[in-house]
Amino acid sequence: MMKNLRAAMAANRRVVIAGILALVALSVVVALFYQGGGGVAGAGWVRGARNVIGLIYLDGVLTSGAGYSSLTESYTGSDDIVAFLREATQDPAVRAVVLRVNSPGGSAAAAQEISQEIKEFRDAGKVIVTSMGDVGASGAYWIAAQTDRIFAVPATMTGSIGVIMETYDLAGLYGKLGISPETIKSGPFKDIGTSSRPMTPEEQKIMQAMVDDIFDQFVGVVAEGRKMTRAAVLPLADGRVFTGRQAMAAGLVDEMGNLPAAVRKTAELAGIAGSYRVKEYGALSPWQLLLREIGAAARSLGAAAGNLGAAAGSLSGAARGLGVLQTLPISIPGGR
Prior knowledge:
46% of the residues lie in helices and 19% in strands. It has 11 helices and 14 strands.
C-alpha cells in the first residue's frame, strides 16, 4: 500500500512540474506577443502622439552598477535606472516619467545614485510620479520620496524606513568542520565583520555609527521629499512596514490607484491637455522574459521544497561579507 502511495505522489509531482512548465511556456509566448505594444493605455493615450510619458520599471532588489536576473532573484541596477532617467531628461518629447516600483529596497548607495538623477530630472522642469505595485519599501521608498507624487494600492507594502547591516559568526561551525581561519591584516579593524570570530564591542560601535549615519540621511530625505518635519518622520521610521492605506493615512503616500491611474495623474501634473503616448524604457528582452518566468516557477518549487533557496542565500550572504542595506527581510514576487 505504501508503495502505491509513493508512486501516486511521484505521479502527482510530475503532473505539477509539467503544469508549471506549460504555464511558463504560455506566459513567455504571451509576453513576447505583447512586448513593445506601446505602453499603458489611459485617458488621452494615443499611439504616435507627440507628447510622451516615460515608464521606467524598478523591479527587485536594488544594487549599484548594472542590474541582472537569475533563476531565484531579480536585481535592479542603479546604472540602468540612471541611464533611463538621463535619456528621458534629454528627450524634449518626454514631458514626464512614471516610476513603476516593485522592490523591497537594497543598496543605500544605489538609492542615492538614482535619487540624484531624479533631482536632475525634476530640475529640468519635468514631472516624475511613483506607482507602487506589490511593494515599495526601504531603499525603494527612499527613491519614491524624491518624486512629485506617490501612488499605491491599499495592499501595497511600503515604508520600512530604516537601515540594516548583518554579519555572521560562523566560528562554531568552522570548529565543527575543523576549519581554522588565519588572518593577516594591516590594522585592527581591517577584518571587521569577518565570519571567523565574534564581533568586538568596539567593532559593534563602529558598525552602529555607520548604520546611524545612513539612517539619519534616510530620515532627512523622507522629511524633505514628503514636506514633513524630522519630528513627524521619526515615529514612522522604526523599520515597520505599512500597507498602502496605512501609509496614505501617515502621509507617506499621496493617492490610492493602479498604474493607469498614476499615468493619467502624471499627464495632468505635466500639463498635457491633449493626447500622449507612453514609452517604456528598458523593455525586457525575450531571454530576460524567459529567465523571469523560469525563475518564478523555480521560486514556487523552492517554496514547496521548504525554501532551500533562502537558506542558500543566507550562506551566500555570509560568504560575501558586509553590506549596508535598506531592504525588507522578506521575499516578494519578482518581475513585472
